[in-house]
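Write out this protein's structure.
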Amino acid sequence: MTTRRQFLAGSLAAVTAQSRVAAAPRTILEQFRAGERLEGVDIVDAHGHFIQRPDDLFWPRNVELLMSDAERLGIAQVIASHPSAYTAVTADQIRTAHDECERAAAKYGPRLRIYLVFNPRLMETSVAEMRRALAPESPFVGFKLHGGLAQYPSEGPNYQPVYEFAAEHGLPVLLHPWHDLDGIPAVMQKHPRLKLTLAHMGFLPEGLGELLKQFPNLVVDTCGSTASYRLLELLVRTAGAEKVIFGTDATYLTFGPQLAKVAFAHISEDEKRLIFGGNARRIFGDRLGLVR
C-alpha cells in the first residue's frame, strides 16, 4: 500500500519532471509554426531598405515600419541601405540619402546599421562618401552596390576604389550583380581580403555553391521573392552553412516569408542559427555592436 508520504513524494517528482520538459528550449521550427516571436535566436537581417516617404506608400516603407516589424518578429538588428542613393542621378541625392540614414541610425542605435551606397555612375561623390564609414561611432558598417540598377558589371573599373577601400578597412560589401556571376571570380582574385556578399540567392545562376567554395570571403544572402525548390539546402550541402547569411529585402519584401525560408529548411538547428545571425556576427565583427 502506498503511504501518504510516498504519494506526495511521487507527485512532486512527476511535477518536477514535467516542469523540466516544459522548460526545454523550443526549436526555431516549433516557435515559427506556433506563430510566435522567435526567442533565444540571434537574428541579423543583413539586407534591408527604408525610405522616409508617406505611410501610405506601398513600398519601400519608412524606417519606423521597418524596425517595428523587426522587433515584433524577434530580429535583433537590421543592416539597411537607402534606395534613393542607388537610383540617384545627382551628388546631392546620394548625400541626402546617407544623411537620412544617419539620423535614422541615431534614433535606433545598434538595432539599425547602415550600408553606404557606392554608385558607379557618380564616382566622385561615392568615393568621397566612403570616409563616413571611418568616423568615430559610425553607423555605416559596409557598402551596398547595385549593379543591376546601375547596369554596371561587377568587375568594372568604377567599382575598384570601393573594393580596395573595403578590403583595406575590413568593411563588408553587399553586391547585387548585374546579369550573372562571370565577373565575381575576377573580383575575388584581385581582392582576396574583400568580404563580399552576393545578394538574392534565388536570382543567381547554377554553380553558385561551387563558386562559394572557391573563395573564403565570398558568401550569399537568402532574400528573394523566388528560389528553386530546396535551394537553401543545396547551398548548405555544397558550400556549408557558414557561406549563407540571412537577409529579407524588407521593406520591399515582408519579413515573414524570408524568416520561414530558413525556419522550415531541412537543415540542422545549428545551421539555422549560423544563417540567422552567427555568420553576420563573424563577418561584421564589432561594427555591429551589441543590442541590449
